[in-house]
Amino acid sequence: MAIIGIDLGTTNSLAAVYREAKVELIPNSLGEFLTPSVVSIGEDGQIYVGKIAKEMLITRPECTFQEFKRNMGTDYVYRAHGREYRAEELSALVLRSLKEDAERFLGEPVSEAVISVPAYFNDDKRCATKNAGALAGLVVERLINEPSAVALKHHMENEEMENFLIFDFGGGTLDVSMVEAFDNMVEIRAVSGDNYLGGKDFNELIAEHFYSENGLEKTRFSPEEQGIVLQEAELLKRMLSRRNQVSRTFKLGENEYTMEMSNQQLIHISAELFKRMTGPMKRVLNDSGMTWEEIDQVILAGGSSKMPVVRQYIQSIAEATVVMDDQPDESIALGVGLAAAIKARIGDVRDMVLSDICPFSLGMELYDGTFSPIIERNDTLPCSRSRVYSTARDFQDTMEFRIYQGESIMVRDNLLLGTLQLDGLPKQRAGEVSAVVTFLYDINGILDIHVDRPGQSVHKVIMNRNIGLSEEQLEEKLKELSQMAMYPKGKERDRLLIERARRVYMESTGQVREDLEREIRQYEYLLSHGKEKDIRQGFVRLLLYLESLEQKQVTFEEFREDFFQEADGNFEE
Question: How far apart are CA 66 and CA 39, in angstroms?
Fold first, then answer.
């Protein structure tokens, strides 16, 4: 039974499998590798995942959700039709869709997966990701950091001894890793990142700029209309990857608006986002102890790194050769597919070694509320570290050990993982009674804690905590989600076309709306009553009509500027 690799992304998700001595991306039911990480829930409990759901962000915004990966491991809830869903439940529906696609592609059941996570995901977010896998019916023993997956894929393709920095800029997160690769070894030296910085932040800035430039109050528009503006902003951003200045004309209600932007304007309004990119890079350089002279390449990965302004900015601050990964949207999934093969010990990768690191420090709370690290961030996994702690008060007969994860000197700003207690201590003066605390942290994120003193010991394992859910609640959620029906595979192409037509309808007015409504009704009738030949002809007719309408909505204005020419010539693609 195959183990698949899954890139569970903020914007898009992919699955991959290693077979016949290579990694293969797994297509979804539409024949595409990228599945938008969007979920829509119908009133009847019908679940839509991917491209169909993305169209429903405009037509059904009140029950359609995206970018929930950012809220993994938090108490944030999403509401639809009187029910509440946590981020891990919505993620589970995406994983379930990918699992079904993999089973159809491989022709066999799939029960286990390796899933990628941002390197800077803390324990809560990692545990929530494992819970999402369990809710999707997958065994998830191993998580792999996203830039580690890119590094694995890159080294397997090049097999050279080199040091490289991975700048992985996705739709919702930024990860930076320093990597040393040689022979069959890929060693992660340091990681850093920003869980709340990604391509979507550029979309939102472009949308806010549109409101400001046109003197419009965002709140005067309905959620559906705000969704249209955000979608237009994303399309404008993508167009700026091909042209230096673009404009789009679209309708909101009865009014027509034009959204314009140049790459120079984008740089200006996004100054704070660019400044935030430098923080993780500085931290990785400092933590690894490496200099720019020791780095062979800076490798750009993640879909948002394709933005020319991002590439030029990294080139301007990096003192090393900057190259674009040849598959920026797919490189994580390909790397996770390799990681799954390494875990399964199959093929030519059975002897590959991926050395990962602890992304956050782990330690204890001291008597004054300060943090005492035992395992430091960037320590290589698996690792074991010990420290001695003594009583802080006279005649103290109990020692409580509170375990935290984080980097702040005050534990109140770190993440509490659990507690242990040593009772029945001899009542002696402060400092005269001590215990050895040992942390063992493995590559699967399991923290094994031992507290020992002569004649006494306590032990605790912290792993895969059910964030916000008890075991009983997790079982109940699994039952609930398994009863919710996914939209039938094989019929998604037709439903996607209808949702696309409904979105264009909302963006149109007058005679166009009347004509489009008639076309939609005719096609829906064919789906219910028509023969297969008639349905195919109706599909093509409606598709061509929609494309003609959408082309009329877009205008282009292009000119060249020095900075764009420089950026275009400075990168290897």
Answer: 7
